[in-house]
Amino acid sequence: MNLLDDVPEAAEAEIVSLLLSRPGVRIERIVSTGQVTPVDAPYDQDHDEWVLLLAGGAGLWVEGDGERTLRPGDAVLIPAHRRHRVTWTAAPTVWLAIHFG
Amino acid sequence: MNLLDDVPEAAEAEIVSLLLSRPGVRIERIVSTGQVTPVDAPYDQDHDEWVLLLAGGAGLWVEGDGERTLRPGDAVLIPAHRRHRVTWTAAPTVWLAIHFG
User: Fold this and answer.
1) For B2, which of A74, A96, A101 is closest by C-beta distance?
2) Cβ of B23 and A24 within 8 Å?
3) Quick one: pLDDT at residue A43?
4) Angle at CA A75, nearest 5°, toward A71 and A80?
5) Touching check for B97 and chain A: CB below 8 Å?
6) Does any CB of chain A come closer than 8 Å to the CB of residue B5?
7) DSSP code per residue over A24-58
8) Mean confidence (pLDDT) of chain B
9) Distance CA B28, CA B39 (A)
10) What is the pTM for the complete model shown?
């Protein structure tokens, strides 16, 4: 499987593919094509998440840390209950997301 | 942290960096600069491992599957006790390795 293959340049919504699931951990590929998180509906998860940007580019706002620009290779740990939002995404952008617990 | 930064083009051995550890899962970055697994000493691990090639290129032999060429974006699940070897690596090659259990 190649995570950079079959990546559309446009889609109505983010495309989330479960790659692997084990006790306590879930690995996803997420393809974004311009989608953002609504300002009034940030993510607030009850588990830690580790994201790695594989291709494209994105803005990520994390409560307490502010907004940063992510480029390929950038990895961020988002602790549980730390509110966060994707503020912009290039089309296409490919993420690896690892959810713990 | 950017996983593609600070990647040497030559080193005496593979450079393994622990990125994150949680119950049942360990995430590493591995930088290879030509190193291979000795033919007479394949890996034989007691846990599943999932690898994603981030940059460079490599050959991976897995018992029962034969040898394949990995390019950026390629991901492979190596089940526990499935013997495997890295047969060649470009310099530099960057891997994400996730060890389960």
Assistant:
1) A74
2) yes
3) 96
4) 130
5) no
6) yes
7) TEEEEEEEESS----TTS-B--SS-EEEEEEES-E
8) 97
9) 24
10) 0.96
Q: Does the distance separating the beta carbons of B74 and A1 come in below 8 Å? A: yes
Query: What is the DSSP code (8-state) at residue A9?
Result: S
Q: Between chains, do B24 and A25 touch, taking CB under 8 Å as contact?
A: yes
Instruction: Place A101 in a pLDDT band, splitting at 50, 70 and 90.
Output: confident
**Cα three-residue angle B93-A99-B62, rounded to 5 degrees:** 40
| Amino acid sitting at position A12 | E
ipTM of the complex: 0.95
Structural element, H or E, at residue B94: strand B93-100
Asked if B25 and A75 come within 8 Å (Cβ–Cβ), the reply is no
Cβ(A4)–Cβ(B72) below 8 Å: yes
Taking only the tens place, the pLDDT of each residue in A25-66 is 999 999 999 999 999 999 999 999 999 999 999 999 999 999
Assess whether pLDDT exceeds 90 at residue B101.
no
Say yes or no: B3 contacts chain A, CB-CB below 8 A.
Answer: yes
Interfacial B residues in 30-69 facing A (CB < 8 Å): 48, 50, 52, 54
